């Protein structure tokens, strides 16, 4: 539970610091809201991530099938889903208040909730792919390493697993960041009427954040 809490605290803080800056924290209520949302998302994600292992240990479920599901199969999708969840929650002001959209010359033509929702959705999806793949692929590779009997001791296996996780994470960071461009595009038809009346552009742009 502690390690889950540390992991989601770091990713949540990173997401909050690298979001779109349009929603202005001019009032204390917005600061307070973001802190409450962030703490809630971190606590919920940490509990969800740790719950299967805690449940297994609490009820001493030690069968090979249970071990396979809880220790090998569940962590990857759980990390992916909870990472996407925390990203969406801490950046919720962006689709609640909207983000700036610009024309091709960089001129701001309005603030769009639809663009904010698209930016948050893309970020959450890329975060799910990043951490889901990072914790899934190494387990698959470790399985083949064990079958091939390339390592002899649990300590050596732990080192191999750590190396594989680090390597996959290093490779997946640029992949996840390149899934959607930093300067996102949104079509005219997807914008609010009040923005349509202020521009004739068919496509507008926004800062997606990281």
Characterization of the model:
- The chain has 210 residues and is mainly alpha-helical.
- The chain has one domain.
- Helix content is 68%, strand content 9%.
- It contains eight helices and four strands, in the order H-H-H-H-H-E-E-H-H-E-H-E.
- It has helices spanning 2-17, 28-58, 64-73, 75-90, 92-97, 113-147, 154-177, 193-196; strands spanning 99-102, 108-112, 183-187, 203-207.
- A two-stranded antiparallel sheet has the order 1-2. Strands 3-4 form a two-stranded antiparallel ribbon.
- Helix 6 (113-147) runs antiparallel to helix 7.
- The chain starts with a helix and ends with a strand.
- 27% of the residues are buried.
Q: Into how many domains do the coordinates divide?
A: 1
Percent helix, as a range, is 55-70%
Outline the biggest β-sheet: 2 strands, antiparallel
> How many strands in all?
4
N-to-C order of helices and strands: HHHHHEEHHEHE
Cα-based radius of gyration, to the nearest Å = 21 Å
Task: Report mean pLDDT, rounded to a whole number.
Answer: 86
Question: What is the spatial order of strands in the main beta sheet?
Answer: 1-2
What is the overall silhouette?
Answer: elongated
Secondary structure category:
mainly alpha
The end-to-end distance, rounded to whole angstroms, is 26 Å
Unreliable spans: none
Q: Indicate the proportion of strand residues.
A: 5-15%
- Helix count equals 8
Counting copies of identical and different chains, the oligomeric state is: single chain
